[in-house]
Amino acid sequence: MEKELEQTQNGIIKVVLFGPESTGKSTLAKALAEEFNTQSVPEFMRMYLQEKWDLHNEICTEADMLPIAKGQIRLENKAVKKANKILFCDTNLLQNWVYANVYFENYTNPLFEKYVNKHEYQLYILCDIDVPWQPDDLRDKPYEREKMFVIFANELTKRNLPYLRVNGNLNQRLAQCKPILQKLLNE
């Protein structure tokens, strides 16, 4: 079971798009992957929960968190093999851990937490809430965006993780990311 949560390490720089719902993470991940001629990893939680909603009209439960974590790592490990020097992850286990702790107060799972702490990423791109909130079947916090942003930012600070806060439209966000990412690639 633990093998399913192991992160493939092969010298590829891993960057996570991080932050609350509807902040442009998916759009930016795809745009960055295109800009740097590499791969992006989709958000497994979204695919998993959309299917659960579509098939059974059910929402996320605590029991879903470990299968979601395994699915996210499976997608990441597959993409890292095809990546060109850098990989853009539209979420990671830490993002899922934050959500688990917001939705399921005092969520605990020692195995999940072990891998949240063990996985390594060279940069987190924290997406600001300055883009319009877009409703869909899964998003449910349009009036808690500031609160959620603070929770995500605090998690990065608490863990002393390297991050870049981006804001503005897609082109502005790309312009903010490019020099930092180029520097990472040149190190």
TrEMBL record:
It comes from the Bacteria. Signal peptide: none annotated. Residues 14-173 form the NadR/Ttd14 AAA domain. Pfam families: AAA_28 (PF13521). This is NadR/Ttd14 AAA domain-containing protein. It comes from Psychroflexus salis.
